[in-house]
Amino acid sequence: MKKQLLTILSLGLMSVSAIAQTKTAPAVPPSIVAAIEGITSKRFVADTTYGALTVQDDSLLAKEPRANWSLLQESGNMSYSNLVIGTRSYQLLITKSPKDVHATATLLRYTTPKSKPEPIARGTLQPKVEEKAK
């Protein structure tokens, strides 16, 4: 009886441990994913969503076409693109260190021209997989 109880208890602990290690991907609004993918032409896989992300960011970025973003500019091992909407602006910052397989994209928001940047989403940029025609 003790062995059965010990076995059940250990299996229960292992299943709880496995559940605790499984994380769901952060919920990044589709408009933000579409904006990043439109600028980079790569698939954006979010790994972090920051508390600074607001519904207003989502609605502003959903309305702005790709043409309103600046062209990607390179500076050393990073690239960036900017979007200005009134006094609010956004910057997509792309970095890749030599040891990384994929580049990291971070979307920043500046609420005023003199404010500090607030990160609102981050993730990796991966090659887009073309679907095969059937």
Question: Would you write up a description of this structure?
Answer:
The chain is of the alpha+beta class and 134 residues long. Helix content is 30%, strand content 32%. The protein is built from 3 helices and 6 strands, in the order H-H-E-H-E-E-E-E-E. Strands 1-6-5-4-3-2 form a 6-stranded antiparallel sheet, covered by helices on one side. Strand 4 and strand 5 form a beta hairpin. The longest helix has 20 residues, at 2-21. The radius of gyration is 20 Å and the shape is globular. The chain starts with a helix and ends in an 8-residue tail after the last strand. 16% of the residues are buried. The model is unreliable at 15-25 (pLDDT under 50).
Number of β-strand runs: 6
The portion of residues forming beta strands comes to 25-35%
Share of helical residues: 25-40%
Span of the ends, CA to CA: 58 Å
Element-by-element helix/strand order: HHEHEEEEE
The largest pleated sheet is described as: 6 strands, antiparallel
The strand line-up of the biggest sheet is: 1-6-5-4-3-2
Structural class based on helices, strands and sheet pairing: alpha+beta
Broad shape: globular
Ranges where pLDDT stays below 50 over 5 or more residues in a row are 15-25
Radius of gyration: 20 Å
Number of helices: 3
Rounded mean pLDDT score: 81
What key attributes describe this structure?
single chain, 134 residues, alpha+beta, six-stranded antiparallel β-sheet, 6 strands, 32% strand, globular
